[in-house]
Amino acid sequence: MKNTDTFRRRAAAACAGLAAALFLCAPCAQAGPFPAFLNYQGKLSNPSGNPLTGVYSFRFRLYDSPTKTTLLATDANYTGANAVNVVNGLYSVQIGSLTAGGLPEAVFHQNEVWLEITVGAGAANDGPEILDPPERLAASAFAFRAINAEKLGIGVNIATFTSSGNLQLVSGSTITSNGTLSFSTAPSAALTTTPNLFIGSNGNVGVGTATPGTSLEVAGGLRINTTTAKPTCDSTQRGTAWLQQGGGGVADLMFFCMKKSDESYQWVQLGVGN
């Protein structure tokens, strides 16, 4: 039993786009019930090119290159009760459906993925034959639309890695390879400008500065704008600054919630406006 290469490639080309469409979405399975399977349709024929009909065993393996350097994943063998019915040469399977959890996520991080198919006669897998060369999985036209799932709005990337290893969240905002997080309204071409908000790998936060020397450093004014009544000063509010805004003709008052020597807490007025 042998597969005619021309027919196999033609059938594979027609269905590889569908397979790759699911292939590109498979990482979503980590966040929901989406199955990490590949829909695959093929055509099986004898050496004369005549389509075959009957029960056949299959094995599907995914590699990183046409030379099959590294095995990325293999599904359980489609034999016995799981053997595939082939009708007029046509068959359809969901690669990964026989493996608990489906295909591993690491498969979908590769630049290239090549599919190797092994076919054997009957449910007992008699005379299995590898159908070389392997086939490269490629995206369908609509699969490219899935790239837009990585964007919020038009042209606002939230998962674009730059050549220096940064992750661009929005235009001019990056997570660097050393663990810092920088937000900026500058265009991506001007990443050297001072960010609006910077979180260093040491946990220091800078507002208007990319070199905070303390837990919080603000380059510019710090405004406390409170219009509601002060909460009760207790251990949960200890260290809280509160500006009590005065009405017409009444000065603003500034308070800090502080602990006294008797272990009680109270709002301490820092000054009186004029």
What does this 3D model show about the protein?
The chain is mainly beta. It has three domains: 5-143, Immunoglobulin-like, CATH 2.60.40; 151-218, no CATH class; 223-274, no CATH class. 8% of the residues lie in helices and 30% in strands. Strands 9-10-11-12-13-14-15 form a seven-stranded mixed β-sheet, with no helix packed on it. Strands 2, 3, 4, 6, 7 and 8 form a six-stranded antiparallel β-sheet that branches. A three-stranded antiparallel β-sheet has the order 16-17-18, with no helix packed on it. A hairpin with a 5-residue loop joins β9 and β10.
List the helices and strands and how they pair.
Elements: H1 5-25, E1 38-43, E2 54-63, E3 71-74, E4 84-86, E5 90-95, E6 114-121, E7 126-130, E8 135-136, E9 160-161, E10 167-168, E11 174-175, E12 181-183, E13 197-199, E14 205-207, E15 216-218, E16 241-244, E17 253-259, E18 265-272
Parallel strand pairs: 14-15
Antiparallel strand pairs: 1-5, 2-3, 2-4, 2-6, 6-7, 6-8, 9-10, 10-11, 11-12, 12-13, 13-14, 16-17, 17-18
